[in-house]
Design a protein that fits this description.
Length: 491
């Protein structure tokens, strides 16, 4: 297809690692279908990507380009996290004109790119729905979290109306007994949901809490785009997806995206090599180190890109890993410890020197899929959860924030592939949980269920399977619905 006649999709991810990664996978898949792709980062993250992946990392191709949009925020520290309340404010109040200006630039005749014909926006970046309507092109929203996570967000207003939120007293925010309160009548959610199983933003005493109101607004605004794309598959979240279909625009499940992309994006090509990690990946012989261990014998530990903990919690995790007796791989970001640099004591390092591999960041998809990995100790982010499901690896979950608590609930009680670490981690209990997962009866059951879900995830992404069929429908029904019409003009 001639460059000027290609459909042109603008992909607008949210400015966090867990959102950028699946959006880039989807963008690569669409590129294989003949789309010209413009992938939009915030200027903050554009700088981080160039810093971590090198000055040529975002060169792309003539028909797969990266662009940047000012988000109203800046930081001199390339490894800093953006301030979430400030970022939420920017999304709601200042990003729309910036995005409109970028679209106008792309649509200038003679710009070297075809006119924008459709937009895929992260559901967090809902200003893009308004921009798409303004320039007259279809817009699909990519929901990057779990379907169960969405329903938890969507029920925020119901929790408020029933008097559960905001919490009546600050002490209740961390009170185990109160958080264990079971709630009923929440459509689409599993039975026995407790307050602690909903997203972390409900744990506030302030009805005007910025993050609570932001996620509630984003979940409710998901009714506005022309379609909703989900990084999940129907077999694992069927009941939740059925409830969502009753309240949202047409939905297309195209996940697990990381596996689907690995099958359809030609290996070794420039597009295949385009990365999204905001942290510099380290190899240092990690995969070779795993090669030297037996099947399902290694614990893999990674708390994601945003989770932080206290120094005391870091030490409990460290000595729990040491006490388990198993070899382990542990990703320790420099900012993992809240307000400080993560430093492990020399006595710990010497005690595990012959059975540990410590990195700051690694190619997680390859590590989890390695046959030596027997359990994944995780924060329960959705990308990590899907990778573990696709690899057939059971999980120990220490949810930190957002909908990670909901993911943890479902993997432990609905899918049978996880165990939850209590909010206050203790080294002895952690060591026992690792041992139980690796060699106990509970671990045997989890491993069996994990293998079953792996098979279903693989089946969902095979050629001719549900992911491909749903993508076909998304492209024909939504993304190309107005292709060939003068849809770059205001309608």
């Amino acid at each position: 297809m001639e460059a000027g006649k290609k459909p042109h999709v603008v992909c607008m991810p949210a400015a966090a690692q867990g959102h950028i990664t699946p959006m880039l996978k989807l963008a690569k898949i669409l590129h294989t279908r003949g789309f010209h792709v413009t992938f939009v980062n915030t200027e903050f993250n554009q700088r981080r990507l160039l810093e971590t992946r090198g000055p040529a990392a975002l060169d792309g191709l003539p028909d797969f380009r990266f662009d940047a949009m000012w988000d109203g925020l800046s930081s001199p520290d390339a490894d800093a996290h953006q301030n979430l309340p400030e970022l939420c404010y920017a999304v709601m109040n200042t990003c729309l004109p910036q995005f409109m200006a970028l679209l106008a630039k792309l649509n200038v005749p003679g710009s070297g790119v075809p006119p924008v014909t459709c937009i895929i926006a992260d559901s967090v970046m809902s200003f893009a729905y308004d921009a798409a309507k303004e320039i007259g092109v279809p817009c699909a929203a990519l929901w990057t979290s779990s379907a169960c996570g969405f329903m938890g967000y969507r029920h925020s207003r119901q929790l408020i109306e029933q008097g559960f939120v905001p919490f009546k007293d600050e002490a209740l925010v961390t009170d185990k007994g109160h958080l264990d309160t079971v709630v009923h009548g929440f459509r689409g959610m599993c039975e026995g949901m407790r307050l602690r199983d909903f997203h972390s933003f409900i744990r506030t005493t302030d009805r005007e809490d910025a993050l609570l109101n932001f996620v509630m607004a984003m979940a409710e605004r998901l009714s506005l785009p022309n379609a909703v794309v989900l990084n999940t598959f129907d077999e694992i979240e069927g009941p939740v997806l059925d409830a969502m279909r009753d309240i949202l625009p047409p939905m297309y499940t195209v996940g697990p995206l990381h596996r689907y992309a690995s099958l359809v994006v030609p290996a070794g090509t420039v597009v295949d090599g385009l990365g999204s990690n905001l942290w510099k990946e380290e190899d240092d012989g990690l995969l070779e180190w795993l090669d030297g261990h037996g099947a399902s014998s290694v614990v893999y530990v990674n708390y994601g890109s945003i989770t932080v903990m206290s120094n005391e919690e870091l030490l409990e995790f460290a000595w729990g890993l040491a006490g388990s007796g198993y070899p382990f791989v542990w990703n320790i970001r420099p900012d993992l410890v809240r307000g400080d640099t993560a430093v492990l004591p020399p006595e710990f390092m010497s005690s595990v020197s012959d059975r540990s591999m410590l990195t700051t960041w690694c190619a997680q998809e390859k590590v989890i899929a390695h046959e030596a990995v027997g359990v994944f100790l995780t924060h329960s982010g959705w990308n990590s959860t899907l990778k573990s499901i696709c690899a057939g690896v059971p999980m120990l979950s220490w949810p930190f924030f957002s909908e990670q608590q909901t993911n943890c609930r479902y993997k432990c009680t609905e899918w049978g592939i996880g165990m939850e670490i209590g909010g206050e981690v203790k080294r002895v209990e952690l060591a026992q949980m690792i041992q139980e997962t690796m060699e106990g009866e509970k671990g045997h059951q989890m491993r069996k269920r994990s293998a079953e879900w792996k098979e279903k995830a693989v089946r969902a992404t095979l050629p001719g399977g549900p992911a491909e069929a749903n993508l076909d429908a998304l492209i024909s029904d939504v993304l190309l619905a107005r292709f060939g019409s003068p849809n770059n003009e205001k309608k």
